[in-house]
């Protein structure tokens, strides 16, 4: 290796004379792109569909596309960072989906879950995906979609995604259909842990005193 480096030494020295000083600041390592959020609750960029919160439907977003992530802006405000997805080797579109972005829309139309092109990417953990397959066989499409959407909503709204997945795995092992009422009770707040809030109403006469002070000033 030393002999090889010595052999290329003159060429390296010649190139070194032409090198410019490094910039004082880091250069831009992203590409900036404008996208519009469609009625599907997301946008497509480089053959990858990304979901965003449904409140952004119809908005035009500025996206900084890095090698490993997307920083999403509206105006000058950064809204979120998304993991960058990649299209398939065969040109098939990829999907980067967060169920929390679309769950509110799905609750209005649960049957939409059945036909989502990114459905498999929607489920945050394997037990959710496997449970949906089990529900389709056990209770039919309509009820399966309704139960599954409620399970995803519960995971999001009650911040119990991992723990709920554990219960779903137990139901799968026993070939049971999850009981939504039981799970809602299991993941509802414990009344004993809720703080007691006491609101003391003040006398309206104090406002008269404030008015008098203002007039005196």
UniProtKB/TrEMBL annotation:
| Entries under PANTHER family matching the protein | INTEGRASE PROTEIN, TRANSPOSASE RV3428C-RELATED
- Check the record and name the InterPro entries matching this protein: IstA-like_C (IPR054353)
Pfam families, from UniProt? Mu-transpos_C_2
| Region Disordered: start-end pairs | 1-20
What's this protein's name?
Answer: Transposase for insertion sequence element IS21-like C-terminal domain-containing protein
Transposase for insertion sequence element IS21-like C-terminal domain location is: 23-84
Judging by the UniProt lineage, the source's domain of life is Bacteria
């Amino acid at each position: 290796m030393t002999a090889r480096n010595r052999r290329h030494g003159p060429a390296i020295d010649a190139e070194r004379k032409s090198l410019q000083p490094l910039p004082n600041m880091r250069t831009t390592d992203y590409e900036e792109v404008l996208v519009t959020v469609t009625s599907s609750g997301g946008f497509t960029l480089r053959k990858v569909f990304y979901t965003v919160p449904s409140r952004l439907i119809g908005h035009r977003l500025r996206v900084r596309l890095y090698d490993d992530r997307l920083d999403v802006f509206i105006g000058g405000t950064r809204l979120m960072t998304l993991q960058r997805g990649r299209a398939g080797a065969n040109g098939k579109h990829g999907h980067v989906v967060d169920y929390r972005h679309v769950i509110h829309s799905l609750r209005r139309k649960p049957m939409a879950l059945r036909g989502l092109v990114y459905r498999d990417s929607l489920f945050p953990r394997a037990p959710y995906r496997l449970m949906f397959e089990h529900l389709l066989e056990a209770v039919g499409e309509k009820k399966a979609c309704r139960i599954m959407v409620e399970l995803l909503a519960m995971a999001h709204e009650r911040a119990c995604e991992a723990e709920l997945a554990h219960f779903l795995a137990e139901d799968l092992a026993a070939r049971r259909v999850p009981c939504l009422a039981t799970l809602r009770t299991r993941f509802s707040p414990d009344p004993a842990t809720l703080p007691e809030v006491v609101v003391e109403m003040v006398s309206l006469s104090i406002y008269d005193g404030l008015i008098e002070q203002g007039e005196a000033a």
